[in-house]
Amino acid sequence: MRMTHVGLWLISLTVGCTNLYPVTDGFHKTLPQQNTRAVVWADHPATAGTATIWLQKRGLTIVERARLQQVFNEQQIRLTHTPDDEAQVLRVGKLLGAEMVIFVDTSFQKELRSSYYADANKAEGGMHTEYSASVSIRGVNVGTSEVAWSGTARYPNPVGGIEDALAKLTCQALATAWGFRPPGQHEFASQAMCQAGERNIPLKD
């Protein structure tokens, strides 16, 4: 059977569209109420900013990062970039009157890939950068140190544009944790997940 260029393009388009939607997982025992004071502790600016805006739009009061740093300096706390840091962040959160700390962890790996395009008249190739990326978010109760809710999101295949990818994964992970979308891979637009819970909007494209 002869596969035409159009047929190959349609297959590529179908696979490409599927890869646009991340795979997520998550749960919640309890969700914070309106005006809950919280700290966002993230290891990447894109996830920190996205999570802060998402949570503020759902009524949480987020402590500014500068205020956090001020308390770290006053208490002479030095982070070691180990799991022990979480206890220190929870301690500072408590000093600032926060009821919850939202930990946002990112994982991404750069991959250099070759690209190839061909039609009846020409063939071109080159190299481009893609990333395998995932985001994990946990809402931890400051008083009990228990995880109240958690969400994860990852792309099934490498993607380009790491800043945009991490921001979208953050929204998808939060939306799954808070119950605005089911776990798994579904055709839920990331823009809709960034707005989930704000108003009645379509969740699918």
Descriptive key words:
205 residues; alpha/beta; Rossmann fold; seven-stranded mixed beta sheet; globular; disordered C terminus
Question: What can you tell me about this protein's structure?
Answer:
Strand 4 and strand 5 form a beta hairpin. 35% of the residues lie in helices and 30% in strands. It has a seven-stranded mixed beta sheet, with helices on both faces. It has helices at residues 5-19, 45-57, 65-74, 85-95, 162-177, 190-195, and strands at 23-28, 37-42, 61-62, 100-118, 123-141, 147-154, 184-185. The protein has one domain (22-195): Rossmann fold (3-Layer(aba) Sandwich). It is of the alpha/beta class and 205 residues long. Residues 1-17 and 200-205 have low confidence and may be disordered. The longest helix has 16 residues, at 162-177. It is built from six helices and seven strands, in the order H-E-E-H-E-H-H-E-E-E-H-E-H.
Write the layout of secondary structure elements.
Layout: H1 5-19, E1 23-28, E2 37-42, H2 45-57, E3 61-62, H3 65-74, H4 85-95, E4 100-118, E5 123-141, E6 147-154, H5 162-177, E7 184-185, H6 190-195
Parallel strand pairs: 2-3, 2-4
Antiparallel strand pairs: 1-6, 1-7, 4-5, 5-6
Helix pairs in contact: 2-5
